[in-house]
Amino acid sequence: MTTHGLAIPSPSRNTSTTPRSGGRGIGRTALIACGMLASLLYAAMNVFIPMRWTEYSSASQTISELSAVGAPTRTLWVVWGVVYGVLVAAFGWGIWTSARGYRTLRVAGALLVAMGVFSLCWPPMHLRGAPFTLTDAMHIVWAVVTLLLMLGVMGFAAAAFGRRFRLYTIATGVVFLVFGALTGVDAPRIAANLPTPLIGVWERINVAAYMLWVVVLAIAVLREGVHPLDAAGTSG
Fold first, then answer.
1. Checking CA distances to 81, which of 36, 52, 132, 229 falls within 20 to 30 Å?
2. Which residues of 115-148 are buried (b: 16+ CB within 10 A; e: fewer)?
3. Domain range for residue 217?
4. pLDDT tens for the 236 residues of the chain, in order
5. Residue whose C-alpha is closest to residue 142's, from 114, 126, 123
6. Distance between CA atoms of 73 and 48, rounded to whole angstroms?
7. Any domain includes 85
8. 111 CB contacts (<8 Å, ≥6 apart)?
């Protein structure tokens, strides 16, 4: 069955269609809504936290510099970052419990839970001009792993829905490739304490594209519902 451009598989004959309790339904809705809250929170963090650091430039500095060792905004970012990670993990759990046999969406939910938990122990980078240390190297590793988790979530979730959502996911992936490459070109200049006039712009376009995608995914699940697949895991 296809509604609003999203392909939703019908339940198989051998799958129980007994209505679930209203309480559980409300609980799952709250968990899915955590995805939208996480995106809104992260956007707010990028707007309001930089205001606490007068020398910071959102255009020429990366988001990670807000939580760098010695940054005046580090404590504030870390505290709200924990809230963001918990919301992401809750969203992933909501996706997992909503999938009910929909394998690709369950994988997406599991990856979201992993990403939320993973973000709780992010090693900090140092301010520009400081010696490069192990935590700086680990920060880069965390960034790469997080990017891979994000792409995995997008790929598996896209496979769960119809053509329009898949095309939208592909478009978001293209944004990742283009602006991720632009960010990567400037990244080595941070450690060398060289000018990076637009690195913050490139990175924030990437982040905004993903956060919007998460909101669309949450709306799709809430609006369309997710039904069990047959034993083969293929949609009808």
1. 132
2. bbebbeebbbbbebeeeeeeebeebeebbeeeee
3. 23-224
4. 443 444 433 333 333 333 344 556 788 899 999 999 999 999 999 999 999 999 999 999 999 999 999 999 999 999 999 999 999 999 999 999 988 778 999 999 999 999 999 999 999 999 998 899 999 999 999 999 999 999 999 999 999 888 999 999 999 999 999 999 999 999 889 988 899 999 999 999 999 999 999 999 999 998 865 543 332 333 33
5. 123
6. 10
7. yes
8. 92, 149, 152, 153, 156
How many CB atoms within 10 Å of residue 25?
12
Q: Is residue 152 part of a domain?
A: yes
Token digits of residue 1: 């069955």
Helices 134-158 and 163-186: angle between axes, nearest 10 degrees: 160
| Residue 95 contacts residue 81 (beta carbons within 8 Å) | no
DSSP assignment of 60-95: TS-GGGGGSBT-TTHHHHHHHHHHHHHHHHHHHHHH
Among 51, 90, 83, 45, smallest CA distance to 64 is for 45
CA dihedral 91, 93, 98, 102 (to 10 degrees): 110
Q: Which residue has 């990437």 as its token pair?
A: 206
Mind spelling out the 3-state secondary structure of 95-159?
HHHHHCCCHHHHHHHHHHHHHHHHHHHCCCCECCCCCCCHHHHHHHHHHHHHHHHHHHHHHHHHC
Question: Does residue 9 form part of some domain?
Answer: no
Total count of domains within the chain: 1
13 within a domain of the structure (yes/no): no
